[in-house]
Amino acid sequence: MTTADQIFTVATKRAHAASLPYSGALTPAEAYALLQQSSEALLVDVRTAAELAWVGKPLVDDSQYKHIEWTRYPGGVPNPDFLDSLRAAAGLDTPVFLLCRSAARSKSAAKAAAEVGFTQVYDILEGFEGDKDAEGHRKSVGGWCWRGLPWVGA
Asked: How many angstroms separate the CA atoms of 115 and 130, rounded?
């Protein structure tokens, strides 16, 4: 079994290699393993409420899951309360793992969180649904769902 320290070390090395402005990048499996090993870790789902309603969400302990939209539906307008909501949900030193559909919004959210002082903020690579396949469908090219991690559908 890989330890939490080992996973965090790999995630930090990814950050350095890619010059990320936040703590690191986790694979979906690494994020799930850390949630199992650390009751302090928090998975923050930054997708819209509509995405959760239509697609589903990761199945993790309720105490380790928080939904805070990065952008709002409809229109994709930024959520002006994101950082205040994140501060209310987690301390600046809490390990925070950010998840979106395909790891685009979560990167922006991680950058913003790091800029306001979060010291352990990580992007979850591939996101919940992953990238689109050749036919334009998701959940078949990477992501939390495709990796076989627990989730509940809408």
From this structure: 26
